[in-house]
Write a structure and sequence with these properties.
Helix content: 10-25%
Low-confidence stretches: 100-107
Structural class: alpha/beta
Shape: globular
Largest sheet: 7 strands, mixed
Mean pLDDT: 86
C-alpha cells in the first residue's frame, strides 16, 4: 500500500471555516481550491456571499457539483478560457461585473 502524497503547499484561511488558496493573474482573482473545514456548515456559501463585487473572481476546473451549484445560484457563469501555460481551454466559473465580456482568452 502506498502513502498518499503530501499537499503541494499549505492552505490559506480564506474566510471563517474556509480553506484554500487564491492566485492573482490576468486582472482577476483565481480560486483553484476551496475547502470547507466543516462540510455542510454553510461556511463556503457565506464566504462566497462576502466576495467583493468590485473584483473579478474566477473558479477554474470546478469538479464538485455542490460548489458548481453554489456558484450558479450566486450568478457565476461557466465560461471557457485559454490557458496558454497548458495549451488548452479550461472551464472557469466567473461572476460577471461591469467589465465582464465574452469568454476571455488569456495568454
Amino acid at each position: 500500500m502506498s502513502t498518499p502524497p503530501a499537499p503541494l503547499e499549505p492552505l490559506d484561511l480564506l474566510g471563517p471555516g474556509v480553506q484554500g488558496y487564491t492566485v492573482e493573474a490576468y486582472g482577476a482573482t483565481y480560486v483553484p481550491l476551496v475547502l470547507a473545514e466543516r462540510p455542510g456548515s454553510g461556511d463556503v456559501g457565506r464566504w462566497l456571499d462576502s466576495l467583493s463585487p468590485a473584483r473579478s473572481w474566477r473558479f477554474p476546473n470546478v469538479l464538485n457539483a455542490r460548489l458548481a451549484g453554489m456558484l450558479k445560484r450566486r450568478g457565476f457563469l461557466r465560461r471557457r478560457e485559454w490557458a496558454a501555460d497548458y495549451g488548452e481551454w479550461v472551464e472557469v466559473w466567473e461572476r460577471p461585473h461591469s467589465c465582464a465580456g465574452a469568454a476571455a482568452v488569456v495568454e
